[in-house]
Amino acid sequence: xxxxxxxxxxxxxxxxxxxxxxxxxxxxxxxxxxxxxxxxxxxxxxxxxxxxxxxxxxxxxxxxxxxxxxxxxxxxxxxxxxxxxxxxxx
Length: 90
Hints:
It is built from 2 helices and 4 strands; from the N terminus they run H-E-E-E-E-H. By secondary structure, it is of the alpha+beta class.
């Protein structure tokens, strides 16, 4: 019976740890060939199954990383960042 209890505890610990791993990836980028935007904006969301993680954004001369919790960011997100997060969660 002790081996079964030990195995159960190890399994529970493993499940907790793996739930924090990146499982969802979303990407949003500007169409470089579009006449309306001449930018090369890219946002990449890397999230766990709970929606926790980061969204990384690259634009012409800017690079940002924002921490996401449960699919939300307390501050302001760009349209591309929101699209990347939505893509990762859906």
